[in-house]
Amino acid sequence: MSDIKHHKIRFVERPEMDPAELEAELKKIDGVIDAKIDADHREVSVEYDLLKCREEDIERWMTEAGFVLDDSLRERIRRGWIRYTEENELDALRSRPLSCCDSEEIERRKKELE
């Protein structure tokens, strides 16, 4: 299980801003590593650190910025599945048993969960 996620978020409309400017703004979200807007295919490819943000945070930013997300049944199911799996992954990280002797791992996990 990797903390780095790669997803494509489909949209039906995007703001009139230059795609490069939108990508730069999107990358300002804490945890977003990379973002590319493909206007021809109407999708945003995004790479992010699950320990810092979730796809739901990115979708929220997109709608606030003026994107209209694809609301087809397929896309709603896909987004719901991603939310479900991300929450499960975060729960697993929080509950993963630690060795009592691995103090470095214990400290690293404490910092991640703060």
Word description of this protein:
The protein has about 110 residues and is of the alpha+beta class. It has one domain (about 5-114): Alpha-Beta Plaits (2-Layer Sandwich). It has helices spanning about 20-25, 55-65, 75-95, 105-114; strands spanning about 5-15, 30-40, 45-50, 70. The radius of gyration is 16 Å and the shape is elongated. The mean pLDDT is about 90.
Q: Spans with pLDDT under 50 lasting ≥5 residues?
A: none
Number of strands: 4
Helix fraction by DSSP (H/I, runs of at least 4): 40-55%
Structural class: alpha+beta
Shape: elongated
Biggest β-sheet strands, sense, barrel: 4 strands, antiparallel
Name given to the CATH architecture: 2-Layer Sandwich
**What Rg, in angstroms, do the CA atoms define?**
16 Å
Tell me the fraction of residues in β-strands, as a range.
15-25%
- Average predicted confidence as pLDDT: 88
Tell me the number of helical segments per DSSP (H or I, 4 or more residues long): 4
Q: Which CATH C-level class is it?
A: Alpha Beta
Short summary of the structure?
This protein is an alpha+beta fold.
